[in-house]
Specification:
Layout (H helix, E strand, L loop, with lengths): L1 H9 L3 H13 L5 H12 L25 E5 L4 E2 L2 E2 L11 E6 L2 E5 L5 E3 L5 H7 L10 H7 L3
Antiparallel strand pairs: 1-4, 2-3, 4-5, 5-6
């Protein structure tokens, strides 16, 4: 009894056979609308190229064109429940956070710098806003941020 059911299920049904026959008849045929559109594309003139880039003074440099980015951070930096302090002078607030070459550096007001390995570029990107200026030298950027 079970073998008969399996044998019947292995054969395609009448609806499946009709579908396969219709599919075979339609294979290779292209609707007339497609041919009309293709002919229209062949006759169309090429589109003119328009320079729609921003003027150079409004363009923002990409990350690969910058040596690094920095931002001021007035409040204390707390990592893993511990407040970060400068290893030389003990300052714990009013930092400059520098992001360069996939490293994060903290710079205190006294000018001491220390690498912070618990922070990464993704953290920097999440916690900073867009750049308001670009500078030619590190010292120009320090002056701009008041350090």
């Amino acid at each position: 009894m079970f073998h008969r059911i399996r044998r019947r299920a292995a054969e395609p049904s009448e609806e499946q056979r009709r579908f396969f026959e219709l599919s075979a008849q339609l294979e290779g045929q292209v609707p007339p609308e497609v041919e009309r559109v293709r002919a229209g594309l062949d006759r169309a003139e090429p589109a003119t190229v328009v320079d729609d880039f921003l003027p150079p003074e409004l363009r923002v440099p990409s990350h690969d064109q910058l040596d690094g980015r920095m931002t001021s951070w007035k409040q204390p930096v707390v990592l893993d429940g511990e407040m970060v302090a400068c290893t030389k002078c003990g300052a714990y607030r009013d930092w400059l956070i520098l992001s360069t070459r996939d490293q994060i550096w903290l710079r205190c007001r006294a000018g001491h710098q220390q690498q912070e390995t618990r922070l990464d570029t993704a953290w920097y990107n999440r916690h900073t806003g867009p750049a308001d200026a670009t500078h030619a030298t590190f010292e120009d950027c320090l002056r701009h941020l008041g350090h």
